UniProtKB/TrEMBL annotation:
<dbReference type="InterPro" id="IPR013785">
    <property type="entry name" value="Aldolase_TIM"/>
</dbReference>
<comment type="similarity">
    <text>Belongs to the DapA family.</text>
</comment>
<dbReference type="InterPro" id="IPR002220">
    <property type="entry name" value="DapA-like"/>
</dbReference>
<comment type="pathway">
    <text>Carbohydrate acid metabolism; D-glucarate degradation; 2,5-dioxopentanoate from D-glucarate: step 2/2.</text>
</comment>
<dbReference type="InterPro" id="IPR017655">
    <property type="entry name" value="Dehydro-deoxyglucarate_dehyd"/>
</dbReference>
<keyword id="KW-0456">Lyase</keyword>
<dbReference type="Pfam" id="PF00701">
    <property type="entry name" value="DHDPS"/>
</dbReference>
<protein>
    <recommendedName>
        <fullName>Probable 5-dehydro-4-deoxyglucarate dehydratase</fullName>
        <ecNumber>4.2.1.41</ecNumber>
    </recommendedName>
</protein>
Amino acid sequence: MTSAPLAARLNIPSGPLFFPVTAYGPDGSVDLDVFRAHVRAGIEAGAAAVFACCGTGEFHALTPEEFRACVAAAAEESAGRVPVVAGAGYGTALAVRYAKLAEEAGADGLLAMPPYLVVAGQEGLLAHYAEVAAATSLDVIVYQRDNAVFTPRTVVELARTEGIIGFKDGLGDMDLMQRIVSAVREEVPEDFLYFNGLPTAELTGLAYRGIGVSLYSSAAFCFAPDIALAFHRAFNAGTAEGDALVNRLVDGFYRPFVELRSEGRGYAVSLVKAGVRLAGLDVGGVRTPLHEPADEHIKRLAELTERGRALLREESA
């Protein structure tokens, strides 16, 4: 069931939903000072929420101690200005442990990642997320992707589960999402949040908006907040003029970025992190098993980012 405070804060965001990268120092350890600077800059640039230690933040690579420290740092930097949502995942016992660590660290909510490795049936998935939701007082958003794919009936039951307020789609099956939205709308009286959670969600924003899903995660905000903010304002304007700018940014920046991202496995994280470094903040590299982008790809990223900014200059001219 919807819990008003977090759901209300996320429902009509004033800016992009920010998924910060996790900063590492030269020795590979978490650099909390740089992470704090990254989070602080994102909030000051106009982020409506901070999703700490999620996919872009390399949740998979962090120890429980590092996870707690990063979530606490994000919560301290936010100081209540915007909500902080933390990742939680792996098997049920570990997901519950991460949920409790996030609550102790001051998070406002959880993004529940798919269970580790196993391909479970709907009954088991429902039990898993219900147990995670029951473990803390934090509101939970369930993330559909990879081995966690849900039927409309299961999402109806998730929406009825105390503490679960939303559903983030990282699968991209529009037929399934339409059926999910329709089933929940028909059977659950409370509002339920939906998020477009595909990598570089701006590319598919107009398609998702067509089925009533206007919230989305923005990895591009990590390294090009000006472009991401301009897109967000145009997208949420819902006008012909706004949609025209959305399409220009899709054609000139987001689609080429997605095509570049597809040239390397793990680039949804490592290419974004390279973009943050290009923007002037040394957040370090990625941890294995991810790897760094090729130099040529980083050069193309810099060119693409400048191209996106040129489009904004043309728009304001």
